[in-house]
Amino acid sequence: METRSSSGLDQFCSLLVERPGLTLLDLAGASQSTVAFITNLGHRIYSDDLLLQMDRCFGDGDFYENQSDSQKVAQFLDTALDYPAQHFDGALVWDTLEFLSGPLLETVVRRLNHMLRPGSYLLALFHAEERAETIPTYSYRILDRKAITLAPRGRRRPAQFFNNRSLEKLFSDFESVKFFLTRDHLREVIVRR
Amino acid sequence: MWNRRKEEEQPPAPKPVAAQPPAAQPARPQPAKEGIPMSTVPSRPTESFDAPRTGNAVLGKSVIVKGQILSREDLTIDGEVEGTIEMQEHRLTVGPNGKVRASVKAREVIVLGTLHGNVETGDRIDIRKEAKLVGDIRTARIVIEDGAYFKGNVDIVRAEVPKPAATAATTSASAPRPQTPATSPAVSPASAGPAMAAGVGEIKR
Q: What CATH code would you report for A2-192?
């Protein structure tokens, strides 16, 4: 496990200290440290493991080809992202969006937009190494406001790579997009709903 | 004649017969000298009394229960349960083979198997490695081991704590860098992995 600092998380946490009693979505899978961090600030956390849900729905066969199977997509959206409108005050999406192919990615981002309250933040991470065939995947855990722990989960082929422009386009329905490019070729993106 | 002879021969016989019980007794516990030892009382009664003494009821692997469970003692479920479980003063353990589809209210819940349903605990919930829990949790404390799967909401209910602890909690909440005791196992990056895997970290309210 490695630990790294995160400016994106710091920005995300500025929302958490402003108001108590928020409801946050964490899609990295439940971890003791994240649950402890969020709940100690007086918030509620909703945990799920989106990568695991993807594997369950699309893992049998070609991962990305399956993402265009309407039945599987419907099942995925129902099991992984079926939340009421404006239910969350913030979402920690981490690097999960990198493993969704075009049309499904857009659908998922629309869902996230639908689930978040206006003024809330979404934190997502995107690898910036465009030539890499596979990228490492992690289970992200919040250590403190500015630091995360990365528990390795193997490597995966991303669906696509993003630059600032494509990310702006992806989150065009949101109010603002802010980027932090880190030394380790990771683009941290804070999106405001 | 035969009979008579046998009857006549019988009197000396008691010796070996009388000698038999002591020979059989070593397998039994102490009461041998009391004279009652000839009775072959099965040892079941003492075993069945042992279970209540431990205060832990067990639903074994092959048991399936559908309905409402109200328990006044700790309960371990290693079978299947569907319905509701209420044991507000006691501990529920869902064993590694346990499959529970129920709303649960207990003082403490330990999950090693599968639990689908909302859980409310007065004290704590412990989701162990390889456990699967899908449902919303309301609890005072939660422990999630590495490798556990959890999908749902965690709502930490503030227990009635003495004032000093409460003030400590508020200061940690308002502090910009809450290096709280709850996250203490993860404070050292090097030790974060094993400590988490062991499920040491705990939310303290």
A: 3.40.50.150
- State which residue of chain B sits closest to A148, comparing Cα positions: B189
For the entire predicted model, the pTM comes to 0.71
Helix (H) or strand (E) holding A153: strand A147-156
Contact present, B126 and B110 (Cβ < 8 Å): yes
Q: Which residues of A touch B178 (CB under 8 A)?
A: 37, 40-41, 144-145
- Kindly list the residues from chain A whose CB atom is less than 8 angstroms away from the CB atom of residue B139: none
Interface ipTM:
0.84
Residue-wise pLDDT for B103-161, tens only, equals 999 999 999 999 999 999 999 999 999 999 999 999 999 999 988 999 999 998 876 65
Q: Please write the tens of the pLDDT for every residue from A19-64.
A: 888 999 999 989 999 999 999 888 999 999 999 999 999 998 899 9
Domain ranges of chain B: 52-168
- The sign of the dihedral angle between the CA atoms of B149, B155, B161, B165 is positive
CA atoms within 13 A on the CB side of A5: 9
Q: Which helix (H) or strand (E) holds A176?
A: strand A176-181
Mind giving me the DSSP string for B86-141?
EEEEEEEEE-TT-EEEEEEEEEEEEESSEEES-EEEEEEEEE-TT-EEES-EEESE
Contact list in A for residue B148 (CB cut-off 8 A) is 30
Contact B93, B76 (CB under 8 A): yes
Q: Which residue of B has its CA nearest to A153?
A: B147
In a 13 Å sphere around the CA of A137, the CA atoms on its Cβ side amount to 20
Which residues touch B97 (CB under 8 Å, ≥6 apart)?
A: B61, B78, B79, B113
- CB-based contact A44 B177, cutoff 8 Å: no
